[in-house]
Amino acid sequence: MVSDQYISSVAPSPVLYLLFVFFVCVWFLRVYILYRETVKRNKGWIGPRTLIGVETVFSQICRPIPGISLGYDYPWLSKHNDYPSDGCDAYFMVSAFPVGYSSLWLSDAAAIKEIASSRLRFPKPVELYKVLLVFGPNIVASEFDSWKRYRRMVASAFSDRNHEYVWYSASKLGVDLLDNVFKNEKEVVLDDVTEITLPLALYMIAIAGFGREVTFQHDGVVPHGHKMSFKAAIDIIAKDIFLKLLLPKFSFTLHPRLRKLQLAFEEIEEYIKEMIRERQTSTQEEGRSDLLNNLLEANGDSEIKGEKPLTDEELIANVFIFLLGGHEASSQALAFALAALSLYPDEQEALYQQIKQVMPNGELPKYEDIHLLAYSLAVINETLRMYPPVNASPKYCAEDTVITVTHASGSKKLIPVPKNTKIFLHITGVHYNPRYWKDPHVFNPSRFLTDYPREAFIPFSSGSRSCIGRKFFETEAVAILSLIISRYKVSIKEDPRYAHETFEDKKQRIFTANIKLTLTAANQIPLVFTRR
């Protein structure tokens, strides 16, 4: 047995206990003092106060805990609720941890435009995007000279020639969906509309992004030298890409699902390398208009001009970013649009009447006549206003500065902002701001058929760092939405469990969403497509 004398000799003395308690108390006192100083410094602009900041890992993995954490969905759930109705569209969010932390949140369109247009004063905090470097150096996870170089190269790939190619590719893919998946049946019931919107968006990236002919029909052909078909690989990546972003490299050998995902990435990378080699050595690829081909052409032109071309690693990384950013946002936006039209049948009928007028034979007009489908674009825009893929865009102050915001009375107010302060351009806050949008919680596409506050519509962000693929998405979405509505009426699938729910209850159930890679429906969206 261990003697009492031995136990007493190894046990911490009361003095050590007291010292430990003393230092803990001093530390908490310091935290409290710094917290109070932060509140005092931002007096008059204080918004939500929490124990743990919204940017911490804890907040990013937890749901809201009153007084503790606002949770990972805060930018979406808060909408415009935390801004004073009789004040300015700005507030400082203050938290005790990280110590002395505060961030400025803005839903003032003019202030957002100023910040987004001043890249040197308000750079992008690229450290928040390091996870995207898993693909290699790319346009999203870069800033300053590197970003300018990528932007110059990539911008030329998103040309009118590519957008026309997107239009006809989307038309072909939409017809493939209606003829070979729906089979023109009188009624098609989907338990979740993303069953079609996810592959639609994914195959559009494959076709218009890589120039690969992909359809809804099964493609089991595995080319020589490969272990997986191109279509199978992108299907796997689309479902599990978030695992690639979150998990360490060694984990991809631990589970069959992860090994399959790793193989899919390796296969896609090899496919892209093959495409690059083929197009760099072949003279028969001239006239192609997919993004990869355009990017290779721009890369070749840069070398001729004496500029530094992109390496193969940089080419592949930026192509992966198109895949990552494009398919998820596009599929969810189209799913939300179809759900909204189901809940608002009058809006769906108005859309159908214009489509019928423009497409009497059920075929899309030529690309140059895309403007005739104005109501289709209005539906897409209203969907993006209410359900933006990205809910807040982070910046930081590179220097001590002052930001001008507008008070509800119309007067201008100045907010002093210290160097290194994080600023969140609150996209959802702007989109639900009643100063810019009448009845912001109501789905009303017609607001986009007349003059609307363009500076307050920023689903693709704002300024020079706005989404470079905006026109690509709009072209794809207008084509596919118009084709579907031209043939089918869409409604919410009835469920006996919800027989007595009100319109608002149904809206809440269908449009409950979470922030993942982009804003994503939290529940299935069950829809019925009835042949017209």
Keywords:
single chain; 532 residues; Cytochrome p450; 5-stranded mixed β-sheet; 17 helices; globular; Cyt_P450_E_grp-I; transmembrane; Cyt_P450_sf
Structure commentary:
Pfam families: p450 (PF00067). InterPro entries: Cyt_P450, Cyt_P450_CS, Cyt_P450_E_grp-I, Cyt_P450_sf, Insect_CytP450_Detox. Pathway: Secondary metabolite biosynthesis. It comes from Postia placenta MAD-698-R-SB12. Belongs to the cytochrome P450 family. With 532 residues, the protein is an alpha+beta fold. The protein has a domain at 137-390 and 459-531: Cytochrome p450 (Orthogonal Bundle), CATH 1.10.630.10. The protein is 48% helix and 12% strand. The chain has helices at 4-10, 14-41, 57-61, 74-77, 109-116, 144-157, 160-181, 194-210, 230-246, 256-281, 291-304, 312-343, 345-358, 374-386, 427-431, 470-487, 503-511; strands at residues 46-52, 90-97, 101-106, 187-190, 392-396, 401-406, 412-417, 422-426, 488-492, 513-515, 519-521, 527-531. The strands form four sheets. Strands 1-2-3-8-5 form a five-stranded mixed β-sheet. Strands 4-12-9 form a three-stranded antiparallel β-sheet. The termini are far apart. The model has no long low-confidence stretch (mean pLDDT 89).
What is the C-level CATH assignment of the domain at 137-390 and 459-531?
Mainly Alpha
N-C termini distance:
87 Å
Q: State the CATH superfamily name of the domain at 137-390 and 459-531.
A: Cytochrome P450
* Rg estimate, integer Å: 26 Å
Number-wise, the strands total 12
Q: Pairing-aware structural class of the strands and helices?
A: alpha+beta
Task: Characterize the main sheet.
Answer: 5 strands, mixed
Which fold name fills CATH's third level, the topology of the domain at 137-390 and 459-531? Cytochrome p450
Low-confidence stretches: none
- Give the overall shape, derived from the CA principal axes: globular
Strand order of the largest sheet: 1-2-3-8-5
Look at the structure and give the mean pLDDT: 89
Number of helices: 17
What fraction of the residues are assigned to beta strands by DSSP? 5-15%
CATH architecture of the domain at 137-390 and 459-531: Orthogonal Bundle
Helical proportion, percent range: 40-55%
Q: Element order, helices and strands?
A: HHEHHEEHHHEHHHHHHHEEEEHHEHEEE
Protein name: Cytochrome P450
Cofactor: heme
InterPro entries: Cyt_P450, Cyt_P450_CS, Cyt_P450_E_grp-I, Cyt_P450_sf, Insect_CytP450_Detox
Keywords: Heme, Iron, Membrane, Metal-binding, Monooxygenase, Oxidoreductase, Transmembrane, Transmembrane helix
